[in-house]
């Protein structure tokens, strides 16, 4: 007989009623908001007032960032082709990886593993490896990411502006000093610092982004389904670089 699949997250009590992290789900439905419930299922405990405010801000900050974001673009293209809602949203989620939506997790990993290193040491390490430091710079926000400013303001108000946020900001200063150009802490880096302050393991970085972004994807997919027109690139948007006029 196979071993049982063990979990500390959800199950049923002795009366057959559903429980989540030890709490009766029926009670949670009546008493918790969605932010509190997400915090509970991920961390195993209910958030206090400050944790709830900070976590809510963290989730809202990634909810959407335009049609041009890769996950949104592919979700809308999939929706326009007539696939199911779940398939279209899943296509968008599948586009979240190292180059889109993954910087937050990478930045959180860096901060949690190197927080005791100096900013100069961290920048030098990445420079030696010829790698970009995740969580810094943005193609739109060249001098300051307004989302970062807002998130860190809330972090200050709620008491989550500790060693990880400080280190993240020190790295931004060191990067500017080292490169001679401004590479501000972007929203991915800010989320990485804040989630680290809140005690979330860096492995949850992409998951937190996905939890937030799925809401935006759902809105985009629903909007795209209204058009009923297949989205595709025009010939003017495609630059063919292969060989031409070959004979068999």
Describe the structure.
This protein has 248 residues and is mainly alpha-helical. 55% of the residues lie in helices and 3% in strands. The chain contains 11 helices and 3 strands. A 3-stranded antiparallel sheet has the order 1-2-3. The longest helix has 23 residues. It is globular and about 75 Å long. The mean pLDDT is 94.
List keywords for this structure.
single chain; 248 residues; mainly alpha; Cytochrome p450-Terp, domain 2; three-stranded antiparallel β-sheet; 11 helices; 55% helix
What string, H for helix and E for strand, traces the elements in order?
EEEHHHHHHHHHHH
Number of helices: 11
Q: What proportion strand? A: under 5%
What structural class do the secondary elements suggest?
Answer: mainly alpha
- Under CATH, the topology of the domain at 103-203 can be stated as Cytochrome p450-Terp, domain 2
Distance between the termini: 61 Å
Please describe the biggest sheet, giving its number of strands, its sense, and whether it closes into a barrel: 3 strands, antiparallel
Secondary structure elements and pairings:
Layout: E1 10-12, E2 18-20, E3 23-24, H1 25-31, H2 34-43, H3 49-61, H4 70-80, H5 85-94, H6 103-114, H7 119-128, H8 146-158, H9 163-179, H10 187-197, H11 205-227
Antiparallel strand pairs: 1-2, 2-3
């Amino acid at each position: 007989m196979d071993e049982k699949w063990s979990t500390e997250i959800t199950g049923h009590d002795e009366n057959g009623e559903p429980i989540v992290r030890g709490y009766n789900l029926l009670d949670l439905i009546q008493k918790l908001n969605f932010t509190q419930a997400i915090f509970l299922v991920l961390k195993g405990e209910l958030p206090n007032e400050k944790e709830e405010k900070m976590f809510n801000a963290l989730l809202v900050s990634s909810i959407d960032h335009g049609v041009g974001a890769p996950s949104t673009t592919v979700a809308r293209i999939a929706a326009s082709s007539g696939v199911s809602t779940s398939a279209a949203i899943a296509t968008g989620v599948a586009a979240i990886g190292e180059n889109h939506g993954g910087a937050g997790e990478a930045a959180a990993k860096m901060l949690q593993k190197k927080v005791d290193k100096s900013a100069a040491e961290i920048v030098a390490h990445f420079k030696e490896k010829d790698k970009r430091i995740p969580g810094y710079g943005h193609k739109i926000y060249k001098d300051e990411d307004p989302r970062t400013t807002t998130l860190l303001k809330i972090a200050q108000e709620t008491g989550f502006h500790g060693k990880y946020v400080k280190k993240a900001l020190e790295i931004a200063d060191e990067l500017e000093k080292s490169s001679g150009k401004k590479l501000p802490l972007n929203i991915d880096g800010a989320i990485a610092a804040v989630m680290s302050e809140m005690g979330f393991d860096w492995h949850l970085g992409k998951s937190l982004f996905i939890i937030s972004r799925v809401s935006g994807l759902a809105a985009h997919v629903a909007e795209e389904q209204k058009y009923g027109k297949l989205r595709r690139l025009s010939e003017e948007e495609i630059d063919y670089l292969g060989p031409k006029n070959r004979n068999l």
